[in-house]
Design goal:
Elements: E1 2-3, H1 9-18, H2 24-34, H3 49-58, E2 59-60, E3 64-71, E4 77-83, E5 88-96, E6 99-103, E7 107-108, E8 126-127, H4 130-145, E9 151-156, H5 166-177, E10 189-193, H6 197-204, E11 211-215, H7 221-227, H8 230-233, H9 236-249, E12 254-260, H10 268-278, E13 283-289, H11 303-315, E14 320-322, H12 336-345
Parallel strand pairs: 1-2, 6-9, 9-10, 10-11, 11-12, 12-13, 13-14
Antiparallel strand pairs: 3-4, 4-5, 5-6, 7-8
Helix pairs in contact: 1-2, 4-5, 6-9
The structure holds S-adenosyl-L-homocysteine.
């Protein structure tokens, strides 16, 4: 049995043709899955009984089982899912003035080892499949369907390093973006990477223009290598060279995410270094309040200090935004809910 969500429209077409059906049957199935968002083949009323039986023999239609859902006072909703093989992943639904946004995972655990992050507390177990990546969006959209609402944005910022699972992510986003699929515009989809340079260069050549965000978090190599081991492989100079190349091919502005860690990266000297780094780049800095993680020593800056650092950057002519804190009262930090679940199981 295979996951039907792993199949592109082309794969589905080949499948129906191989089984003796007309290719347009594939479009009908695809439309049931992503437009009408029906996952019970028995309800796919324009398919023959015979085809329905065939589909049920060959595929499963639900790849995520909800384990828990936490709803925050601000509407942030965190979903913990169990995968078919018993692994757990999490996804988050956030409510902004501009609409609903889903934050999705790309791997079970993560191997990037960022010192401040809860996801890396448990190493990568495996990559998520195409169906598991897009299944998170489908699940959350179905949840919103109950109140006739629509997901406006997707951020690939959950557990895992998206560019360490590049092909599956691109295939999943294709269906998420497809006008015949979930139809979420490319400009409303953002991918966040810790900075895997060869993949940034590959991404620059993609024909679909999703937004690119880089987890920067430090203003010099010494500090960044301490916080993010990936910096040893791809130091700032190489990273920014790749970003420049991306910008030349692509007119989109790059987001540089910068976590505010108290006493670590929030000083005047950091602001000076950021100014130098950003010179000539089509990029802006998004300051992110840190969600404290029990197992990690870092602490978030106070709101006062966050605003101070914001002002320091502004004064230096850097484009900067300050991200609103979401889901403070639930286990909002990346990988926190899953980490807790794993602890319970042990
Ligand atoms: N691996 C990718 C995407 C997943 S992490 C990346 O590194 O970009 C998504 C973002 O959340 C990254 O910017 C990451 O550094 C940040 N992050 C990790 N732990 C966090 C925490 N405890 N509080 C706030 N942001 C965190």
């Amino acid at each position: 049995m295979r996951d039907i969500l792993d199949l592109s429209l082309e794969d589905l077409s080949s499948y129906v043709v191989e089984n003796g059906y007309k290719p347009y049957k594939a479009k009908q199935i695809y439309s049931w899955l992503y437009k009408k968002r029906i996952s019970d083949p028995e309800m796919m009323s324009d398919l023959s009984k015979e085809l329905i039986t065939r589909l049920k023999e060959d595929f499963y239609f639900e790849n995520l089982k909800l384990v828990t859902k936490q709803v925050s006072k601000d509407g942030t909703t965190k979903f913990l899912f169990e995968l078919v093989d018993g692994n757990f992943i999490e996804s988050v639904l956030m409510v902004f003035d501009y609409g609903y946004s889903a934050c999705i995972s790309t791997q079970v655990g993560c191997n990037m080892g960022c010192r401040f992050c809860a996801s890396g507390l448990l190493r990568k177990v495996r990559d998520l499949s195409v169906g598991e990546i897009l299944g998170q969006v489908l699940y959350i959209q179905k949840y919103l369907d109950l109140t006739q609402e629509r997901l406006a944005n997707i951020v690939v910022m959950g557990t895992g390093e998206p560019f360490d699972n590049y092909d599956n992510l691109m295939a999943a986003l294709k269906i998420i973006n497809d006008p015949l699929g979930l139809e979420i515009g490319a400009r409303h989809i953002s991918i966040s990477t810790c900075g895997i340079v060869p993949k940034i260069l590959q991404f620059a050549d993609e024909s679909v223009q999703y937004n690119l965000a880089i987890s920067l978090h430090a203003s010099n190599d010494e500090l960044r290598s301490k916080l993010m081991p990936i910096n040893k492989a791809y130091p700032l100079k190489e990273l920014f060279k790749a970003l420049k190349e991306y910008s030349l091919k692509n007119k989109r502005r790059i987001t540089l995410e910068y976590l505010l860690l108290d006493g670590v990266n929030d000083k005047e000297t950091n602001a000076d270094e950021l100014k130098d780094l950003l010179r000539g780049q089509n990029a802006y800095i998004n300051l992110i309040p840190y969600n404290n993680v029990d197992e990690r020593d870092f602490r978030s800056v106070s709101e006062r200090k966050a605003l101070d650092f914001y002002d320091m950057l502004k004064k230096r002519g850097i484009s900067v935004t300050l991200r609103q804190k979401k889901g403070d009262d639930i286990d909002a930090a990346c990988g926190q809910l899953r980490a807790k679940k794993m602890k319970e199981e042990r």
